[in-house]
Amino acid sequence: MPLPALNAYIAATTEALGVLLLTLGLGVRLISIPLIITMIVAIKTVHWGNGFEAGNNGFEIPLYYIVMLFTLVIYGGGKFSLDYFIG
After folding, report:
1. What confidence tens digit (pLDDT) does each residue in 12-38 have?
2. What angle do CA 15, 21, 63 make, to 5 degrees?
3. Which listed residue, 4, 11, 52, 77, has the most CB atoms within 10 A of its CB?
């Protein structure tokens, strides 16, 4: 992987910002897309070789995150999000 330190900082920043924005319900659809990309990269670089099972550090949990984030991309944050109150 090229520039591993830079990629680690980008992934960590995306995940930290993602947690904050998803918790607030602000920009839910927008932040879900980079988080999906981060999970795909995590599966490809770390989890794929270990198989599916979470007990073996497989890609089960990141796959669940992708499904959940894809649902947020489609439906948004819901009635109790800041996006709903702003809109």
Report:
1. 999 999 999 999 999 999 999 999 999
2. 45
3. 77
Return the pLDDT at 1: 84
* DSSP-assigned letter for residue 54: G
Which pLDDT belongs to residue 30?
97
Q: Total domain count for the chain?
A: 1
Domain range for 77 is 4-86
Q: Which residue matches tokens 């981060």?
A: 38
Q: Which residues does 42 contact at the CB level (< 8 Å), separation at least 6?
A: 11, 62
Query: pTM to 2 decimals?
Result: 0.93
DSSP 87: -
Residue whose entry in the numeric block shows the structure tokens 């489609």? 74
